[in-house]
Amino acid sequence: MASSSYSRTEHLRSLWPWLPLWALAALLAIFSHGPMPLYSTRTLAVAWEMWNHHDWLVPHINGAPYSEKVPLLFWMIHAGWLVFGVNDIWPRVLEVIFGGAQLVLVSLLAQRLFPNRSWVAKGAPWILLALGYAFLFGLQIMYEVLLAVWVLAALLCLTPKPQRAEPRWVLFGLCVGAGLLTKGPVMFLHVAFPFLLGPLWNDWARDNRVRWYSRGVLALLLGGALLLAWALPAGFAGGEAYRQRLFFTQTAGRVVNAFDHARPFWWYIPAIPALLFPFSGWPRAWAALITLRRPLDSGMRFALCWLVPVMLVFSFISGKQLYYPLPEFAGAALLIAGAIAALRDQRPALANNPWLGTWPLGVGGILFGIFLFVLPVLVSHNDLHGEWFDSTQRYSRFFSVVFVLLGILLLLRGRGEMRRLAFAGLVGTLALNTLFTLTMWQNFDLRPSAQLLGAADAEQRPIGLLGNYEGQFHFAGRLTHAIERLYEGKSLQAFAQEHPDGVIVEHPEKLTNEALRYALLVQPFRSGWVVIWPAKSLADLRAGRVPPEPPHPTRVYQVDEWRFRALQ
């Protein structure tokens, strides 16, 4: 066999079995239910408005320029729509592709950074694929999943190859530019510290500091130029207010005194165990990290130069969300895999100690399975009560078997401990997602409301909404006009007087008898409701008048047993 052909065969073998296993789980999970409000539906709404109005430069949401996001993900969605037509299948397939690309890239990074420890390249993708939060968030049609691909690709360009130690600067700049076009200036934060601290982990950077920093800055400027190539014409096309938000208000408003998602400095610290589950519950991983000693190899130094300063900066930034550091999950996988590999080489007694195995997670899985099995009894005796418990108990016994079997798997000892843990983590997360789909998804599925609003929009009937609109109806309803934001009082009355044939959407926490009598549609949404009214009927009720009897009864959708009892 030719050497090049042999190399390709070896590379394909290195992807087996973690990549097909993850792809199967991701496809099953992402197509088990529709796009999730409000993350996925908002992204699709922006893509739909750009597509529908043929505005490929400036993203729009609900008829207004959308300064919060840059357009690369929308363009990639449009590319698929150009071939397959407008649908929500292609955007979800894209997210699966992005997730698979992350696994391949983290494997390649491990090969470059740990050339003397081949186990890291085998273990890191297993760790990354099993992280429950990353897997579930990867089911959202969101920008961070694509951003993580560009971050990993950019960092891969900085790492040395056996035949070339100097980074691929042009590719590095292009990947940075692609990341900037995916999520904006935050891309610089994700790659800045591995570059700035290059001499601490990269021998070539330490020996060639001037070339490292000078060419690296030029590459970063190339990435910035790609962003400006879009931002400058978009800023002028979007108008003065959009230009001001795009270039100044948006980024600054998230860094200091955030206008959205403001959290205290320490907010990420208690979330780390949940974000890194199930490996945060593996004693051997903690033992490996605690027993790390200098000198650290280049891969471990790289992971620390990436993770520690980035997380510190994210902690100082006022606006915080659990998915903001999503690209760093791959760095955590490298760190854990590298620490385990060092433990295996340097401390074989700890690496084989059965008390550091996965037995705590195994016991936890069995106990959770027992809890799911007895949940119907607890609910029927009113020992547990609430929407989540009442809904999931209908199928919980079927899933209890899954978690008991996974728990038994984790109690096994011997070779392949990490892969068993990763497999159990992935299957357990998929099982929870399936349980959610069977029991709770009906309270998130806005298609009935979106279809009614789409029909009203097609009839040129104006639509108003009480409260803040997040684009959740635009794509599913294929709306072509903006929804007007309304407020109680004069705003609502003026809308109804000006548009007597219009409809109004509200999101009450509790349902009234008037809604069941006069509204066009009622359906549960999260812990509250969506109610769609004839504008005149709602205005009459708010003014204390009795509306005329509706020609058709109110359509009530998907009210489960818990909601039905709440209506009584």
UniProtKB/TrEMBL annotation:
Membrane topology: Multi-pass membrane protein
Keywords annotated in UniProt: Cell membrane, Glycosyltransferase, Membrane, Transferase, Transmembrane, Transmembrane helix
Entries under Pfam families matching the protein: PMT_2
Domain Glycosyltransferase RgtA/B/C/D-like residues, every copy: 70-221
Primary localisation category: membrane
Protein name per Swiss-Prot or TrEMBL: 4-amino-4-deoxy-L-arabinose transferase-like glycosyltransferase
Source species taxonomy: Bacteria, Pseudomonadati, Pseudomonadota, Gammaproteobacteria, Lysobacterales
Keyword Transmembrane: yes
Cellular localisation: Cell membrane
Regions crossing the membrane: 96-114, 126-158, 170-197, 217-237, 299-317, 323-343, 355-375, 395-412, 421-441
